[in-house]
Design goal:
It is elongated and about 85 Å long. The longest helix is centred in the first third of the chain and has 28 residues, at 53-80. The protein has helices at 4-7, 14-33, 39-47, 53-80, 85-101, 108-120, 127-151, 157-181, 188-212, 216-241, 250-258, 277-301. It folds into two domains: 13-151, no CATH class; 157-301. With 304 residues, it is mainly α.
Length: 304
């Protein structure tokens, strides 16, 4: 049984609402325009909903491929023996195998759905026309899903990237505290995971920018932020490996203190440490943090 208190952490997100809108539009199209069962349209619309327009288009392309292949195979097998348990199972095997070989694995669900719809739900129509109608229904549903994603509460890459950058900054601060103050191992795995997440989001944003032909300056800033985060990860990884013997110069210690990372006095070396590996990686890491703060402020102040 679900704990009521734990359910409070779940929120009604935009993707949830957009999916509901896509379902409603699909039902209306099926009832008043197609004058047919809207089941295939509704399911296809739901399957095409993604977190961004770019992903919706990519998924939509995969779904179209799957729809056509599923329809062709379903039509061929249904001509031979509609509803056959053996042919239905064999068809699923062939679809999954072929789509995996072609690296179209995101098409598997919709291809199987269309294939099964043709093989198992023949309703008095000829095989040919039934396959054509189900294919049209599915393509309409895909179009509805993509259109809703594009027009209603469009996904904000900028906001998501800002949030991911905030998470990265918090993780960096936590790990600096571990390494410099407590000589504890840094959680490099969590930092790498957050870094990869930011990089993936940035790659999708780059495609989106290419589609819209704008926001090039913002993209450049965020690319520089990504490079700085990557450099911080590298420097922190080195410092983590020598945490037990880590000492820093007074200037770096002062900058760390401003980030609420207070080092023990004996770990602040007052003599010339300009050539030490500790100082190099510490100063470079702090320099990148300063650069990110400046670039991040520019991104947030830029009107989209």
């Amino acid at each position: 049984m679900m704990n009521y208190k734990s359910s409070k952490s779940y929120r009604l997100g935009m993707r949830n609402l957009k999916t509901a809108v896509a379902v409603l539009i699909s039902l209306l199209i099926g009832k008043y325009i197609m004058e047919d069962d809207s089941f295939f349209i509704v399911v296809a619309a739901m399957l095409s909903m993604e977190n961004s327009v770019v992903n919706s288009l990519e998924v939509g392309k995969n779904r179209v491929i799957g729809t056509v292949l599923g329809a062709l195979l379903g039509m061929a097998f249904a001509y031979w023996s509609p509803g056959s348990l053996v042919l239905t199972s064999l068809g699923i095997i062939l679809l999954i195998y072929f789509l995996n070989v072609m690296k179209w694995n995101k098409s598997i669900i919709i291809a199987s759905f269309v294939f099964l719809g043709i093989m198992l739900n023949m309703s008095g129509e000829t095989v040919y026309w039934y396959a054509i109608n189900r294919t049209i229904d599915t393509l309409i549903g895909l179009g509805v899903g993509i259109a809703v994603n594009f027009l209603i509460f469009p996904y904000s890459f900028e906001k998501t990237l800002n949030n991911k950058a905030k998470v990265l900054n918090e993780l960096i601060k936590e790990n600096l505290d571990k390494v410099f103050c407590h000589q504890e191992p840094a959680d490099m795995e969590a930092l790498k995971e957050a870094l990869d997440s930011y990089e993936t989001e940035l790659a999708d944003y780059r495609v989106e920018i290419g589609m819209k032909k704008r926001h090039a300056q913002d993209l450049q800033r965020r690319t520089e932020i990504m490079e700085d985060f990557d450099a911080i990860y590298t420097h922190l990884k080195v410092l983590d490996s020598i945490a037990n013997t880590l000492v820093v110069d007074p200037e770096s210690a002062e900058k760390l203190a401003k980030m609420d990372v207070d080092m023990e006095k004996e770990r602040i070396q007052k003599s010339d440490t300009s050539q030490s590996v500790y100082t190099y990686h510490t100063t470079q890491l702090l320099k990148k943090i300063d650069e990110i703060e400046g670039l991040d402020a520019e991104c947030k102040n830029t009107k989209m």
